[in-house]
Design a protein that fits this description.
By secondary structure, the protein is α/β, with parallel strands linked by helices. The protein is built from 13 helices and 13 strands. The two termini are 32 Å apart. Bound molecules: pyridoxal-5'-phosphate.
């Protein structure tokens, strides 16, 4: 780990040495004093999106009307899927953009269970995103409660999953192992290769949720022999609020898989308007209905700067940023009753860290309401800070930590109610 110091000059020095520093200019930064630590939840908007959307609305929707479908709209899910494949380590013909992450999990988890109907165990963990757990519970109910969901817990203070328990839970009766690659609270990152092999040794399929990895952590889906994967595009990939999600189906199993939702976009010849369903080849069969084209166009434009920067350089900067933030946590915040809620080893950490404080929720409120800092809060006590390497500067990290320090030292959080707002 680098020998950091706590001065602002040092943060400026890190910015001067940052090979990605100029990418910030490609993003709309309307309030330079806002410290945005939430690029892991909703990425910033690339300036090029404004112009592209104006054209999409006025020319494509407004003037082309239905002819747009023959001018590039129809192919958008596969075309954008191939763009994303570059940061997912996926060869052609395996990634497609469709629906939401939650729905993609439903489709792919159902496909996995259908492939091995005799096996009745699903392994996941308590670190997984709640929506993923709910989807699995709903699936089990809809399949007549014949499956058992096993949730692995933590081996420490909610930072690291219990890997030994995971290994022993996967048995010959396991149909599916599904985990978040980078966990949403502590930022712990699973060893994809190792866990995938662990599942395969017992004949289970694996489904990775890459929502907090895609665009920040280099993923090698093909190399790791992953079966199935899903993820969001509105986080580090800057696709825009509610941007359509992606899914990956390994070529080796594609032709055996079946979507539980037989929509016409997943049909082999949708414009034959035949009365019986036959699945489209490849990942296309997991499309459902008409793609939200304006959101697709925003996504296709929004990811360009990230793809240009390249995942290797992004990961290098991301490690430096989370190391630096961990250092500032230890130096400034530990004496104020904060503790690091994320792995100290950068190899096991994504691009966000959680810092824990008993007053975490009220501190989060004070930061947003009066300090112009946007982190987010994840119960019970995690103030979560995302470091999007594409546009965040080291000086901003310094400034953000300085403001957190002020909120606690000056007890600015005390005037806020502990009663939570709807979105935290
Ligand atoms: C953000 C996130 C989601 C969100 O799913 P949506 O369907 O887009 O609401 C799902 N899974 C994980 C792991 C996430 O981090």
């Amino acid at each position: 780990m680098t020998n950091f110091t706590t001065t602002l000059e040092y943060a400026h020095q890190l910015d001067q040495q940052d090979p990605l520093a100029s990418y910030r200019n490609q993003f709309l930064i309307s309030d330079p004093s806002l410290i945005y630590f939430d690029g892991n939840s909703l990425g910033r908007m690339s300036k090029s999106v404004v112009e592209r959307m104006q054209k999409a609305i006025a020319k494509e929707w407004g003037a082309d009307l239905i002819r747009g479908w023959n001018k590039g709209w129809w192919e958008a899910p596969a075309r954008i899927g191939e763009m994303l494949a570059a940061v997912l380590g996926a060869a052609e013909g395996q990634v497609i953009v469709s629906d939401q992450t939650s729905l993609n999990l439903y489709k792919l988890a159902m496909a996995a269970l259908t492939l091995q109907p005799e096996k009745k165990r699903i392994i996941t963990d308590t670190f997984n995103f709640p929506s993923d757990l709910y989807i699995l519970q709903g699936i089990v109910k809809s399949l007549g409660n014949q499956h058992e969901i096993v949730r692995i817990g933590a081996q420490d203070n909610d930072i690291t999953p219990d890997l030994a328990a995971l290994e022993s839970a996967i048995d010959e009766n396991t149909a599916l192992v599904t985990l978040s690659h980078t966990t949403f609270k502590s930022g712990y990152v699973y060893d994809m290769q190792k866990i995938t092999e662990m599942a395969h040794r017992k004949g289970a399929l694996i489904l990775w949720d890459l929502s907090h990895s895609a665009g920040a952590y280099p993923v090698e889906l093909d190399k790791c022999n992953v079966d199935l994967a899903i993820g969001c595009t509105y986080k580090y990939l800057n696709g825009g609020p509610g941007a359509p999600a992606f899914l990956y189906v390994n070529k080796k199993i594609q032709e055996k898989t079946s979507s539980p939702i037989w929509g016409w976009w997943g049909q082999s010849n949708p414009f034959d308007f035949g009365l019986e369903y036959t699945p489209a080849p490849g990942p296309h069969r997991f499309l459902t209905g008409t793609a939200p084209m304006l959101s697709m166009i925003a996504l296709e434009t929004g990811i360009v700067p990230l793809l240009d920067a390249g995942i290797t350089r992004l990961r290098e900067k991301s490690i430096l940023m989370t190391d630096y933030a961990s250092f500032l946590t230890d130096s400034w915040l530990a004496p104020l009753s904060f503790s690091l809620g994320s792995p100290r080893d950068s190899a096991k950490r994504g691009s966000h860290i959680s810092i824990r404080h008993p007053e975490g929720y009220r501190i989060n409120r004070a930061l947003i309401e009066e300090m112009n800092v946007i982190p987010d809060f994840r119960a019970p006590d995690n103030l979560r800070l995302g470091f999007a390497p594409l546009y965040l500067s080291f000086a901003e990290i310094w400034e953000g930590f300085d403001r957190i320090k002020q909120v606690v030292q000056q007890k600015k959080y005390e005037k806020y109610s502990a009663q939570k707002l709807v979105v935290t």
